[in-house]
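Researcher: Last one for today. Full complex below.
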Amino acid sequence: MDVKNLRKNNHLALILITIGCLFIPYNNCSQNFQTQSTLLPGADGLVLSSSFSSDPSGSSVDSSVNQGKILYSNNCATCHNSIDSSNILNKNSLDISNAISSVTLMSKFKSLTTAQISWIALALSPLPTSNDGGNTSGGGTTTPPLPTAENPPILSKFQCVAGDDPSPTPLRRLSKRQYLNTMKNVFNFGGVSDSASISTQVSTTYAMIPEDSSYVPGTGIASRLHGFDRTDTTVSPYHLDGYFFVATSTAEALVSNDAFLNNFLLTAGNYRNSSSSNPCTGASGSSISSTCVDAVISSLGFRTFRRPLKQTEKDSYKSFYTANAQTGPRDGISAVVSRFLMSPQFLYLVETEGTPVGGRSDLLQISPYELASRLAYTLSDSIPSVYLMAKAEDGSLLQDSVYNQEIDKLIKGDYGATTNYQQIIADGNVGDGESNRQYMYAYTAGEIVVDRFFSQWLRLDDILPFEYASKPLQVFTAGSYLSEGPAGHHEHYADMMGEVVNIYSYIFWRNKGTFSDLMTTTSLGYTTNDVQYLLGYTPASRSASWWKNAPDGYQLPNYNPGERDGILNRAAFKISGNEQTNPVRRGVFIQRQIFCQALPSPEPDKLPDRALSPPEKTPDTTTRDRFAQKTSSTTCMGCHSMINPTGFAMENFDSVGRARTKETIITETGEIKPQLLPINASATVPIGDEIVTVNGGSEFSRAIASSQTANQCFVRQYFRFAYGRTESTGDGCTLDEMYTTMVSKSMKDMTYLIPKQKQFRLHKVGSQ
Amino acid sequence: MKINKITRRLFLQGIGGATVALPLLESLLPSTAFGATAAPAKRYIAIRSLNGQRLMYWKPSPPAGSTTKAMAHVRTTPLSAYTTGINKILDNSFAPLYSKMNFLEGLDIIPALGHNIGGLIGNFNDQTDTIDQVLAYSNKVYPQDPSIRSLLVGHNCASTGSFSYKNSNGYLIQLPAYLNLQAAFDRVFFSATAAKTAHHIRVVDAVFADYQNLKSNSRLSALDRQALDRHLTFVGELQSRLRNATPLACPSSPSRPTMAQPSYSPSLADIENYYQTMNSLIALSIMCGATRVATLNIGYPKTYGGGDWHGPSHNAEAEPNPVLLEINQWIAKKIVMDLVQKLNVPESGGSTYLDNSLVHWGNEISVGWSHRNESMPTVTFGSLGGKIKTGQHISYLNDGNILVPTGEIYFGRPYNQFLVSILQGMGLSPADYETTGKKSYGAISSLDAERMRYYNQFMTDIGNPLPAYFIG
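Model: Here's the assembly. Have a good evening.
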């Protein structure tokens, strides 16, 4: 493979890459933008510092950052604040180029060179990379070599500044999944549970909670979920409607059924009750003693607030019970339950009970209860178990040995005879809109959560199903049993999805692999004969449920090395739905998800006619050439100069995942054109600031494996998922630690590391 | 007409019999029986089918001499002239409804959208609320808080999303739809006794105080407080609705559906039952005064050939496509007509609920194989209490037979004017929806010069309702 550094040598490519999308919504700031007449002297209205170097090539990344800061300070700060508080942090070269192209008052900056733009982008990056071991980012001035045994990949790290505060911890609402799991487990206390029964009674109300899929207008799916369901903090009237109906329905289901109510009262009375008598013995819907009410409030408060109630809170709830019990105890209990289930302490992860660090009011060591919640929601997407809460209550959770055991329990599901977490696992399959596919081979809460990360990161739910009724597809896949009807189509699609799940599960759990391993694996994860019909391979002999935790030495079968190396070259990621590949879709997915590039979606009203439709088929033109032609205008190339080569590099796979060297053209009526068109899968692909030239999916995936941008992106994605927010300037040390662990050990080790990180136990209060 | 009060227990158990009186909503009662004089409320119901059409099946053939040119690029044909059906989909079985319906062709969405979930009701570019949400949050549609501002039901392929979008705190949310019939029923007919409502008000009031109390915690950041403020805003809306919502008053006893959702591989009868029950729910919600805005998503793909109709809609336009034809005929007769008939029952003053409503059936794409959005086949029923002139086939295709660039269809008139017709027909004025300073509703631009050269002739009129359709 020919991997080139094009930064210096191929200015045309860089210009294309950074020419910018006209579509990016950008902070225009036109009212305050410094006009050319007020700029300090400089070429083309630009202000260059006296120390400005026109060509810092060969200099370190720090030098580039400094140059970028100078450029920014002199030209951008008036509108966008100083660099430390800039309102355009995170903008990359492409964003800046876009703004220059589309914002009239920035047109004076068109004379900026590509390098200068990249320096500004580096200066705006909250996570500048550091020079490490000679494999520097240096603004992308070198390209990492391919990983080999002698040349291990990925050496550069996130920047960690010792002593820096962590980034502020925002108030987070529970994701829908966390909310549902919590709802289904909140009444699990006191040794006897009716959660499942109550949950079944009101399960239809769960559909009233919106999915965590909101996005920023104008960006389409670019910001869908803000990355992950956990990072979508949007609240709407529909959320409130849902919370209200779930809460009140649950409360009313609880009090309207004598068996539920009596059991609830007894277990609440017994929970955390140190006396020998249960204050709720004999209580019923017609008579509940004051001490029993106190116990109910205390117990349910402990479960919903995930900490003991303060006396003022107990008093408030007791008064509330009394006011509502005027029409009977059932109404009193119902009101209390409803209020708890709509309270901010229940719906949000509120962390206000910590201990000031060094006497500072804005930096808190979170309380043991808050730590239990963080741990449980991070690793199991649900409420802390009663056992975990007990560890918080007696303080033992703060002991490393106990804490580590709890991490193991959550991830490994090692709860012995207790069934509490089995409920969580079962809950994942109930009425929450997510297919069972994602849980095919996940058994513990921790495994489910890891699976959730991968499925959301890899956007498995966005993979299009086959349009098996399409005549061209039927002709194209004849003999593969793919288009033999709904059953055949369904099995193939499910098997392809299953293979992806199997592969990442195998690499993550069994092989303790790294991101690089994921991108270079040749393992075959099919467990059905569909792979024989479609790809000509024999499936894995054992079921995935066995080999994920298989003994040492067990290996999955392999594809031929070099044919489809890396998980991204599995059939599932090649599906377009029909018989033609869609290199744009492939390219966008990889740029966004694997390289963390903030590609915006095009605004439809600013597009040429039919811009969003695939190019029409012609008998003598390859898909690649047709897409290239369709996106060849300057308008399109702002983004497609990044997207197209990324997708083109995988054109050696057809639209159902088969390797190919020739392309077949089939008309809409199913006629196969006689000529086969040669495939060209060579491409020069931008991976962030790195540029690689590859030929075919395997080479490309191996280049991804060795890319610091891609490895960093993986760590950033995992951070977002684990911490429930996007990374920021104070997260450098946390990311660095994750990165080092992932690269030197494994993704699994990184998962275990996160709850042990210093930042995991800190709460930084944001500006007041 | 018998007016039955709705109780929570009734709905949960699927039985009737509760008789505690509720205040009646006079406007919902027949004038002959109660002498009501208030104008009936107006309602809007959007029905969306997916994946594109085959325009040849929608093309009417007006009998000779029946078409009148109303103005440039506007030709009308009375539906009564169609003695053998309007087209292959709206066949003669619709004849009894001709006087209350319209078929519109030549309505173009200006931006090139292709697939666009909310395009049918105005979210052309992922930036704007769909018009159902504009209506749902208008105090002209709801002078008094409703029980439910918009009832969103239906099946959207594999997702739980509706085709309605609403901005909230700077983010656009694809709103949830009720796939589950029982869940939708429970939501619409949730609680109604004064005692129960008072109980809920006390709960929400306490919750409101809890959020305010947390806001004062010194360990929250300014951004945290903003988040709580947003939450409080919506708690406040809930408080208002509980205090002020119009009590339900239903013409008949609703029963909780026995079906929640069709099975994974449902029979055709199951699917029909599913959608027809949704229709019943929509109709009942309107008649009971629970809502005035609803959307129905027809996305269940399990019927024809065992799969979806996405594949067939990709087949070439010129090629006969009996599967797609059959699917659309099925939707027309079994779902759309079913809803229309359920609303076409007396309301007051000799009018029916349908007369005071607009039932709008459309698709996200006009020409399936090429993903075009011109000449969106649009069918409406009802007149919004006389705001819409019914009984017409109106063609907005251009007089000069100017073809779109790909040649399979003629240019028409901006779809935006159809949206404006709905908004104004429901009682809104431009100031209520032209919030960005731009005339009309929805995106009105395209980068494609050739397209814009054609559409520019309509820009002075873009903020007005459709000619020959909207009569104000």
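Chain A touches chain B through 88 residues (CB under 8 Å). Chain A has a mean pLDDT of 77.
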